[in-house]
Design goal:
The protein is mainly alpha-helical. The chain has helices spanning 17-30, 43-50, 54-66, 85-103, 108-119; strands at residues 70-72, 78-80. A two-stranded antiparallel sheet has the order 1-2. Helix 1 (17-30) crosses helix 3 and helix 2 (43-50) crosses helix 3 (54-66). The longest helix is centred in the last third of the chain and has 19 residues, at 85-103.
């Protein structure tokens, strides 16, 4: 499947193009469209496919690599990482949050309401 079949960036959108691309690639990975180990198109290939500047795609790939979502293997290309770093980071943050709630005597229901408020 070509990424251009489901990736869509909006030049008039509020978010920068690289960020739109980065976000959509993350969604594609989490939804299973890009399973771990999938080789991504080269920066030039994807830029051409989407009609974007090479630097735009390169920045999206760099940010994904920095976050541990994509691995670059030299001349072999860029691949979807085998582990989602968000899993470990979110588990650690959740543990810290629960510990803080317990220390303050906040029950699970109230702690979840704080999360709902924070997301809104």
């Amino acid at each position: 499947m070509e990424l251009g079949e489901w990736l869509r960036v909006d030049p008039q959108g509020a978010k920068p193009l690289f960020d739109q691309l980065r976000t959509q690639l993350i969604e594609g990975i989490r939804e299973g469209r890009l399973p771990p180990g999938t080789r991504l198109p080269t920066v030039r290939e994807l830029a051409g496919e989407l009609g974007l500047a090479v630097n735009t795609v390169a920045r999206a790939y760099r940010e994904l690599e920095t976050a541990g979502i994509v691995e670059t293997r030299g001349r072999f290309g860029s691949f979807v990482a085998h582990a989602d770093p968000a899993d470990a980071a979110m588990a650690a943050a959740a543990h810290t949050y629960v510990q803080a709630a317990r220390t303050l005597g906040v029950d699970k229901g109230a702690a979840l309401r704080y999360l709902d408020i924070a997301f809104d």
